[in-house]
Amino acid sequence: NLPEEFVKVFYRESSHPIYEVELLPLLIAVMLWSSYIDKAQFVCYLENDSARSGFIKGSGATRLADGIIQLFCEAEAVLQLKSWFSRVPSHSNISDGPSRLDFRLMLSVGCSRAVVPWKEIASKVSSRLT
To answer: Is residue 16 scored above 90 in pLDDT?
Structure first.
């Protein structure tokens, strides 16, 4: 779940921030996995076509979305990623469960849980909104 103070930022910028929330996992991924994905071919599957289009275009449709995408693009450049963005339907999306706080499948296949650096993410995203 998003921390309450982060939720406030999202709702201050958008009345229905699903689009912006769909962008966030990719930013979190590059922050958490940077040491594993350096100079990698990085394939990202998204359920939300607007989010996918934003990453392909390199800019967002809202100020908040644009900030998240720009932070991703900066990490992408630093890590020298070769990113590809594709669509995945919900029923085929292995991360659909965790997005609903259901981690059973992921844990059963040997995945480990990571601590999301919410304060760092919130600080970086907020800095793009000032």
So the answer is: no
